[in-house]
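Weekly puzzle thread! Below is a chain. First person to post its structure in token form gets bragging rights.
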Amino acid sequence: MTIKVLIVDDSAFFRKRLAEIISGDPLLEVIGEAKDGKEGVLMTSTLHPDVVTMDVEMPVMDGIEAVKEIMAKNPTPILMFSSLTTEGATSTMKALEAGAVDFMPKNFSDIAHRREEALAELRSLIKAVSRTRLRTFRRPLTTSKPSAPKAVPAPASKLSDKVSSAVNLSESTRGQYKRINEMLSHDQGKPAAARRFTFGDHSSETTTYRKSGVRHSLLAIGSSTGGPIALQNIIPRLPKLNVPVVVIQHMPATFTKTFAQRLNEMSALHVTEAKDGDILMPGTVYIAPGGMQMIFERAGTGAKVRILKDTGRVSYNPCVDVSFASLAQLYNGRVLAMILTGMGSDGCEGCRILKSKGSIIWAQNEESCVVYGMPQAIVNAGIADLVLPLDEIAEDIVKEF
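Winning reply:
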């Protein structure tokens, strides 16, 4: 049975190319094309597609309003296409908050030149989006501003600055990154369903929270599809913790700065896009920059962020496995790590290494995930100490610390 797709975009060129790409997969079928959001809302109600691909910026009705209308009247999985600009990133975050499942950068070059890797990624994402659990529209969580003024984030580096910084990394840092990659198995990045595990009871049942008794020095979170909304359900509900928090969310380079700023506005914690050389400070959330890898080095009694460009050894930039494996080298068993909603199995190898050092591992439960891939991998592997619904995670983090 084919997956029926409705394309909503004001560009006739993009609609045509996208239809050709989607139709190139025998499991996908384009059942309609709409030139603006209003037409997309109407066609969703009459054609009942399995997935809607939605542009953000359109005349008559933009993508954000169209997502709200569809989710209110005919809830349907929606994949957004967004320009690689700050404005595009902000609009995309709003579309996700309105109920869209995930997004892809609107890269005309990849579409025009039919780069096979990009086309395969697009088709795979449409299939994954078609299987997601839908949320009805609800306003993003907000909290009252803390009484004390929040620290003003330092200006975020441009991607070119990060790449330049990566060029100047010390040999010891490069050596550490090589060792981290050698620690990860060749299965890194494979979809969870394709992997074989030799231990664990394969149970995804939610387990009741019990305080571990471990003295954690850091909170680490990995997520992908559905992650931005899951993180908005967790970070703003936390008080100012006495440990640093690191977040690895699969996201393009242009988007992580905007995402960090939006979380910062909602939270008592200070949230920032991580920069090379940052010293990890208590009460601060460091979002791994998109398109790069984030590892850590010892700095006195604490730790320092190192941002570098990947050499193609791993499947994701940023990669949860890479960052978690790096944390295991510095913190041993003093990390509370958790894997939230997302496709694939990124994070499973990193959690396995953390677990072997004595760290505590949590997973989001299947029922509250948009895509139960990454958490499923660590549950199936028998690595998860606790499986929790999304709405309970923030409360239990507070109890744990």
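Puzzle host: Confirmed. Bonus trivia for everyone else. The longest strand covers residues 28-34.
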